Amino acid sequence: MKNHKKWFLRIVLLLVIMTAVHFIDKPLKAEAAEVTARTFLKVKIDPVYDTSTYITGSAAARSTVSIQIAGRVYKVRADNAGRYEWYIGGHLPVNTWIKVSCNSCFYSSSSLYVQKDPRAVPAPYLEPVTENDTTISGTAREADRVEIYIDNAVYWGYPDRVTGKFTVALNRTLPAGTKITAQSRRGNYQSLKTTITVSEAPVKLIAPTLENITDKDVSVKGIAKDAEIVYLKMGTTSYYAYPNATTGAFTIELNKTYPAGTKVEAYSKKGSATSSVTTAVVLEGAKTITAPTVNTVSSEDTMITGTADPNVKLIAKVGTDEYEGYSDNSGKFSLRLDKAYPAGTYVLIYASKDGQKSTEVITTVVQGAFLLGINMVTDQDGLITGKTIANAEIKVRINDRVYQGNADSEGYFQIMIAKTYKAGQNVEITAVDPVSKHVERKFIQIYPAKPTINTVRAGADNISGTASPRAYVIVRVGGKDYGTFASASGYYFVSINPNDAVRGAKVEAFQISQNIESAIAEVEILN
């Protein structure tokens, strides 16, 4: 009986050991499989564009993937197939660096930079729209068309191919607060949407106009369009009136007359809007009209300006052309001309009012700014040449040395200089108009001259020539550049590949002296 019990206990113990081995063996095998996965899989990241909203890629199945962007780390778990994705929550700019790593992959990380999506269409720009506008304008680059959404209506605009600018006609106004949404399209691609809101049109009041006020008047008349009330100040005394709602006309009764020279100010209001101030002075009654004062008129001007009596008519004759205009309440006037007139043109101007005429003012158009063109000057030139106004006085200043001369009747000039100057030397050239004494001034820099290139024949293994002393010379032949420094005497020599010296091919050379490049010299390779 005792022997049976011993065998029974031995059998039970054996079963317990076998069960334990069975369950211990499974995690060990799983761990071994995981080690194998680390050995053969590599974490990958798919291309990311500036239009992407997700970062995707592949890693070990069910592994944890870390995504590093701009110093911040985000974690996401791969699915059973090893795919992972992470929502960006917006868009990343081009060249943003992204690094991904995986805790279960042999190659633990991969990285890339965000690329510009070649399919992307930039969002359109809309200019502000007010409740008074009947068009919508903006810019849509790289787009075939722009779709404008307003409530349930859709409008189309077609941008200029070069500037991208477009204008869409609504043929109606929109109430303030209306939402306008625009989207650019190119083929099957579309941009993000741009939305703006129609704003209220700013209230702008025009400053009131006043009729002339003399030292005999006991009332002031004028017009204040769109105004609810107009305020008038005569010296230190204030008045007000309510303009006609339709015409804007108003009359203010004064409690006395005011002496000539009294300052007058007027402005209008409507709600919270206030106009600018109109200023004037009380005039002497029935006085003669003062001759206008005319500002200098130059050959560049397209306007004659000056001062005269307030609110008088100005008549001007410029050459054979006639112009008319009016001075404002302060006496200032501006007469627009059709064109600029040449120096020496005759100008006559006078003021007129109520049948009276001022004395005539006579002047002439003076020379304004004029062309001063300078040809390139090199370190081998003994002349400075150019073109400017006819017969101008020319002065050339190099360091403290001054050279002088005159332009001919067509404006061409040649000024001889006593010696040549190094490249990089600054030169000041001044031209003075002999009539108006107007001065034009330019500063130029002396350039190195083109290097010379000695005759080059087919199969040559060197190229030589002359340049500025110790200048760096670059010789280009057969699509290759060869560089060398010129000697103290200006001689240079470079060895080349004889295979590049082909008959009819071009040899180019230029030099750099004082950090300034010369123009390019060129010769043809001979037989």
Automatic annotation (TrEMBL):
Keyword Transmembrane helix attributed: yes
Keywords tagged on the record: Membrane, Transmembrane, Transmembrane helix
Bilayer-spanning residue ranges: 7-24
Bacterial Ig domain: residues covered: 291-365, 375-434
The protein, known as: Bacterial Ig domain-containing protein
Species this protein is from: Listeria grayi FSL F6-1183
